[in-house]
Amino acid sequence: MSNISVFIFVATAILLIVGLQGAIEAASVLLWFGIFLFILAGALSVRPDQDTGYDYFYGMILYFVIVTVVFVIIFIILKGQIISQVQYVFNIDISQYFNLQNYIQH
Q1: Which of 12, 57, 71, 102 is deepest in the core (most CB within 10 A)?
Q2: CA distance 49 to 55
Q3: C-beta separation of 46 from 39 below 8 A
């Protein structure tokens, strides 16, 4: 699955480089799908071992909790940097897209 996500990330990069009308929406959908596949590939690599008796279900839960915490920390750290870099380079205010309250209310 991680190989499929690599192809999705390459297709997203090509779509953004070409810069067609409406490419940002399509690229964001592809990007989220690729991230989902990459995380799923990591979760499926946590396999039960018959000798140790570890439970596969709790391993997946632990993996998703760790990945969620890491993504939240990365989001908090990089949010301001991404907004300021895009505003500096392109003179576009993208801060509305990083406000999670907009997505929760809808």
Answers
A1: 12
A2: 8
A3: no
